[in-house]
Amino acid sequence: MELSPQGEIVVDQHDLERAERRSDAILVARRGQVGVVLLDRPEVGNAHNRAMIRELGLAWVEFDEDPDVRCIVIGSTNTRWFCTGIDLREVASDGLDSSERRSSRGTGQTHRDAGMLKPVVTAVEGMVVGGGLHWVVEADIVVASEGSTFRDTHVNTGFVGSRENLGLVLKAGLGAALYLSIAGRNVHLDARRAQDLGLVQEVVPDGTALGRALELGEQISLSSPSAMALQLRTLWSMARQSYEASLALGAELLIRQQRHPDAVEGPRAFAEKRDPVWKPR
Predict the structure, then answer these.
(1) Contacts 24+ apart (CB under 8 A), 161-165
(2) Which residues have CB under 8 Å from 281's CB, separation 6+?
(3) How many H-runs (helices) and E-runs (strands) does the chain carry?
(4) Do residues 171 and 201 make contact, with C-beta atoms less than 8 angstroms apart?
(5) Which of 180, 75, 186 is nearest to 135 (CA)?
(6) Whole-angstrom Cα distance, residue 269 to residue 9?
(7) Rg, Å, the chain Cα set
(8) Residues facing residue 202 across a β-bridge
(9) Treating both helix axes as pointing N-terminal to C-terminal, what angle do 262-271 and 225-236 enclose, rounded to 10 degrees?
(10) CA–CA gap between residue 17 and residue 116 (Å, rounded)
(11) What's the longest Cα–Cα distance across the chain?
């Protein structure tokens, strides 16, 4: 990955394969067994509009149904903005009826809406605001550049944050979630503070978050797809139920994976000092 003087990420065929811009809203590509989705509306701070949400929903299904894609990386085509939330100009012009509220808060917006059980790494450069937090709090791993910031402005614009703000509670704690959600545009978390709280897992030099996320994606893709799917389900179950219920589910999924061919292939490949050949989920 290279940066232009304007801070845009220069994508060449050595970095990404089959790169395709869709509806002037996102760039969808591959890198080996890693599916890549880059938000691409820099002229409006990568604010998400109807076209972006629609294309994201299609991309999640596309990658989820492709057995050759084992991990997803989400990022931005520029280093100034990751995502500044919903496109308020579109809302001001066209309104936001009840069906649109359901769409922008749910179906299609993130990979979890598609029921995807493939690891997702989010690469953050620049500013994350409001609804842009969706792809941070619902990611499995977040890599952020040193200059990135996280803030929430729902109440400043007359909205109530739901999933993204509840995700802040889950990952960063109630105190941080209240601080960002109530103080609004007046406060933010920098990358190091976000890492201390658990919202971010790695902090890297500016301009390198996407490259590092792709490295992680390639490394993650070497593991058993079936084991990763059940591991994600086990861990994220804690967000939806009690510890005791999650323990029971974890035990059930552990036994299920032990019956999968990968549970034999992994130890055998280790003993034979070769790369494992994984079976589909």
Answers:
(1) 161/130, 161/131, 161/133, 162/105, 163/105, 163/106, 163/134, 163/137, 163/138, 164/130, 164/131, 164/133, 164/134, 164/136, 164/137, 165/133
(2) 67, 117, 225, 226, 229
(3) 11, 13
(4) no
(5) 75
(6) 39
(7) 19
(8) 143
(9) 120
(10) 22
(11) 63
Per-residue pLDDT tens listing for the chain (281 residues): 554 545 555 455 347 888 899 999 999 999 999 999 999 999 999 999 999 999 999 999 999 999 999 999 999 999 999 999 989 888 887 766 444 444 433 357 899 888 899 999 999 999 999 999 999 999 999 999 999 999 999 998 888 888 899 999 999 999 999 999 999 999 999 999 999 999 999 999 999 999 999 999 999 999 999 999 999 999 999 888 887 887 788 788 888 888 899 888 987 888 899 999 998 87
Name the token pair of 212.
């590092």
136's tokens: 């941070």
CATH number of 2-220: 3.90.226.10
**Residue 159 amino acid letter:** F
What dihedral do alpha carbons 253, 255, 259, 261 form, nearest 10°? 60
